[in-house]
Design brief:
eight-stranded mixed β-sheet; 8 strands; Endonuclease, Chain A
C-alpha cells in the first residue's frame, strides 16, 4: 500500500516538473521571437531559442519514455524472468517483510463489506485496529466471519502454546478473551448476532489470514523463538493464491465442515426423534 502511495507522489512530482519545464521552454521560445531586447542581440536570441526548444523536446522525450518505453522495458525484464506471468496467475499485488507498518488497514476496513479472519488470538492486532473494527461493525451491510483455534482442544492448545512460548492454560484463556472481545466490538451478543460469526477450529493454524472483499492478506509463522517480523503477502481475487486461501478458510469455517464448530451465534440443537 505504501508503495502505491509513493508511486503516485513520484508521478505527481514528475508531472509538475515536466509542466514547469515545458512552460519555461515555451516562454523562452516566445521571448526569442517577440521580445525586443533579445531581438537586438542575435547571440542571446539564439541562446533563448535553442534552450526553449531543448526544454520542450526534453519534456516530450520524458513523456514518451514514461508512457511507452519504460513500461515496455519493465515488461521485458519481467517476461525474461517469467515473473509477469507468475504474478498475474497468482494475483500477487504486494509483499512485505514488515507486518505492522506496511498495510493500510484503515482503508481496507473502510472500503470492505465482508471480512474474514483466521489467527490464534491476535491481542496486539485487535488493540491496534480496534477503532477500524468498531467502525466496520457499525456500518450497514457488513459481515465478519472469524475462525480461532478451539480453546477446549487440549492437543491444539499444547501445540500452539509451545509455538508461542506460553502455557496451554494461558493460551486457552487468551482465545476465550478474543472471542468475547470480538462480540463486544460488534455491539454485544444481541446486536452482533446478525453480523458476526465465530468458529472454533479443530486444527492448529499454520498461517494468519485476513480477507477484505476481494483482497487477501496472509502472514506466515516462524520457527525461531522471540518477537520477529514475518513475511506478509497481499493477493487479489481471481488469482490462484486468493482461491487457495478462500477455499481453505471455507473448509475451516462453514456449517458442513468437520474441522470446526460454531461458537457464535450458538448453533441451535435439533430435536431428535425418540
Amino acid at each position: 500500500m505504501r508503495h502505491q502511495v509513493y508511486k503516485e507522489r513520484t508521478t505527481l512530482r514528475l508531472t509538475l516538473l515536466g509542466i514547469l519545464i515545458a512552460v519555461i521552454g515555451a516562454v523562452l521560445l516566445i521571448a526569442s521571437s517577440s521580445w525586443e531586447p533579445l531581438s537586438k542581440s542575435p547571440e542571446w536570441q539564439a541562446i533563448a531559442r535553442d534552450f526553449g526548444a531543448l526544454f520542450i523536446a526534453s519534456v516530450a522525450v520524458a513523456l514518451i519514455w514514461d508512457l511507452v518505453a519504460r513500461r515496455a522495458f519493465v515488461a521485458e525484464l519481467l517476461s525474461i524472468t517469467q515473473l509477469a506471468e507468475d504474478i498475474e496467475q497468482t494475483g500477487l499485488v504486494g509483499a512485505s517483510a514488515k507486518w505492522h507498518g506496511e498495510i493500510d488497514w484503515a482503508q481496507l476496513f473502510a472500503s470492505s463489506d465482508d471480512f474474514e479472519l483466521l489467527f490464534a488470538y491476535g491481542r496486539t492486532w485487535r488493540n491496534t485496529h480496534r477503532v477500524y473494527l468498531a467502525e466496520f461493525a457499525t456500518r450497514k451491510n457488513t459481515k465478519a466471519r472469524i475462525a480461532l483455534p478451539d480453546p477446549d482442544n487440549i492437543n491444539i492448545m499444547t501445540e500452539l502454546a509451545y509455538r508461542f512460548e506460553i502455557t496451554p492454560e494461558v493460551l486457552s484463556q487468551n482465545i476465550r478473551e478474543a472471542e468475547q472481545d470480538f462480540i463486544e466490538i460488534f455491539g454485544g451478543a444481541q446486536q452482533a448476532v446478525d453480523k458476526l460469526q465465530i468458529w472454533r477450529i479443530s486444527t492448529a493454524p499454520v498461517w494468519s489470514y485476513y480477507r477484505f472483499d476481494g483482497i487477501v492478506i496472509f502472514t506466515l509463522y516462524r520457527h525461531r523463538r522471540g518477537r520477529l517480523e514475518v513475511p506478509t503477502l497481499i493477493v487479489k481475487k481471481g488469482g490462484s493464491l486468493f482461491e487457495f486461501f478462500q477455499q481453505e478458510f471455507d473448509a475451516l469455517a462453514s456449517e458442513n465442515s468437520q474441522l470446526c464448530n460454531r461458537f457464535f451465534p450458538p448453533q441451535i440443537q435439533r430435536a431428535t426423534d425418540k
